[in-house]
Design goal:
seven-stranded mixed beta sheet; 14 strands
Length: 470
């Protein structure tokens, strides 16, 4: 017992005769002292008294051995043996218990001089809290500094936590406000059994930019796998003649045919039957909304830059030129930047029939740059829409932002101007359909989702692309 008390004093880093400061782990030392006290007050004295009683009984037996009959002597002898055996068992259990306590104390984190390392404990505790709260990415790779660890709050938490575990009874005794505040420091990693967080009905949703092509372009719904249309692109030849001159044959215009194939897009999220039954929200409806939003953004991006292989073809993928099957690229008149002159050139590259219905399409960052441009009179060429629902304008033509358009850089097709209803056609074959399959992947339910859509430029004359100079 003396050895254990001496070890406890060493653990507390206090000389028993010095009256020094308490241990940095007072709650642990108090716990160990209570364990020892639970073995019995003045255990050594009780052990000596027990041994003395056994010794006296033996002496008494020796003195009375000749004065009692054999049966009584045998009974007394058995009684002595039983008491002795119980004493030995008690000594063994006590020794094992003390050894266990000593091992536990030795496991306490120590500094170089043998004292408990409370800084290391507090840093590990803070790491646990961040990990439990989903903030593992905020944990420093090199560990927490002293300035980042609140040692005082950690000490108060430890003291209050021990008090809570040992004596807190919600029917008879409640923790003080200060104790509750101290205990809240570690409430998440310890299970949150004191404070149950409220679940808000609000769901924070990540927003994604989407290209406005469905709003701008023409659309048509079909009942087969492709749409074909005649294209009257050619023109008739003619000649000038005198009154009696011979008339020779002139060229006859030719027809062309445009074919737009619909393509299939799909998603197959899976969800367990149990989640569908027990979740606080409707997982199927939530997944349907997420997939439909993703489909919408994907198809809109393909109308801008899709390669036409198993997906719609985007208007940015065509070669530059003025012939059929080409889209004219207009130089924006400056190297790696936008200028007022460049927008003026591009605006009047469209013929009048399409110009009056033209709409600019640019990346959001490109719009930011355009807002700083001025004309020769010092007036900004960008004008904010003054009516709700009406877009802003550049040189009098409406402007829409498209996230799939390239940012302004050398040789980038950063600006598009078109009569979009005439220039680009979106072909819908089948809206979003969901096949619910609860059989082939138990316990998961497969939500096989499909959509069939196509798109392509149909009038190459009605669209112009602005290319930033190198």
């Amino acid at each position: 017992m003396d050895r254990m008390q001496e070890y406890l004093y060493r653990t507390r880093d206090v000389d028993p005769n010095s009256g020094g400061d308490p241990s940095p782990h007072p709650e642990i030392v108090a716990s160990v002292l209570n364990e020892i006290k639970s073995l019995g007050t003045n255990f050594k004295q009780a052990q000596d008294n027990q041994a003395k009683s056994v010794s006296d009984l033996r002496k008494l037996m020796e003195e009375t051995d000749k004065r009692v009959d054999g049966v009584v002597a045998e009974r007394i002898s058995k009684h002595i043996e039983a008491v002795t055996k119980r004493q030995e068992e008690l000594d063994k259990k006590t020794t094992e218990r003390l050894d266990s306590i000593e091992v536990s104390l030795k496991r306490l984190p120590r500094t170089g001089d043998g004292t408990p390392d409370i800084m290391k404990d507090a840093a590990l505790f803070k790491t646990m809290i961040y990990a439990a709260n989903g903030k593992a990415d905020q944990i420093p790779a090199t560990g927490w500094t002293k300035e980042q660890v609140d040692l005082e709050s950690y000490k108060k938490y430890n003291e209050t936590f021990v008090a809570f575990l040992r004596k807190y009874d919600p029917r008879s005794e409640r923790l003080t406000a200060d104790q509750m505040k101290a205990l809240s420091v570690g409430i998440d990693p310890d299970g949150g059994y004191l404070v149950t967080p409220a679940m808000s009905a609000r769901i924070i949703k990540r927003m994604f930019e989407i290209d406005p092509m469905r709003d701008l372009c023409g659309t048509e719904t079909i009942s087969t796998d492709a749409l074909e249309m005649l294209v009257d692109w050619d023109e008739a030849n003619f000649g000038w003649v005198g009154e009696i001159e011979d008339r020779s044959e002139t060229g006859t215009p030719e027809w062309r045919k445009k074919r737009i194939v619909v393509h299939e897009m799909y998603a197959e999220p899976r969800v367990t039957q149990k989640l569908i039954e027990d979740a606080a929200i409707d997982p199927e409806a939530w997944l349907a909304n997420k997939v439909s939003d993703r489909f919408g953004r994907a198809e809109a991006a393909s109308f801008v830059n899709g390669n036409g292989i198993s997906q719609p073809r985007g208007f940015l993928t065509y070669a530059s030129g003025t012939n059929y099957g080409q889209i004219e690229q207009v130089a924006l008149q400056a190297a790696a930047t936008l200028t007022t002159d460049g927008f003026t050139y591009m605006k009047y590259s469209l013929i009048e029939q399409f110009l009056n219905r033209g709409t600019w399409v640019m990346n959001r960052l490109g719009v930011r740059d355009v807002m700083l441009l001025k004309d020769g009179d010092g007036q900004y060429i960008w004008r904010e829409g003054i009516t709700v629902g009406q877009p802003s304008t550049i040189l009098g033509l409406p402007l829409r932002m498209a996230t799939s358009m390239p940012t302004v850089a050398a040789n980038a097709l950063a600006v598009a101007l078109a009569d979009w209803k005439e220039a680009y056609l979106i072909v819908d074959r089948l809206g979003i359909t969901v096949l619910r399959d609860p059989y082939t992947a138990k316990p998961y339910i497969k939500l096989y989702t499909r959509k069939r859509v196509g798109g392509d430029v149909v009038n190459y004359q009605a669209i112009k692309l602005g290319i930033v100079s190198v």
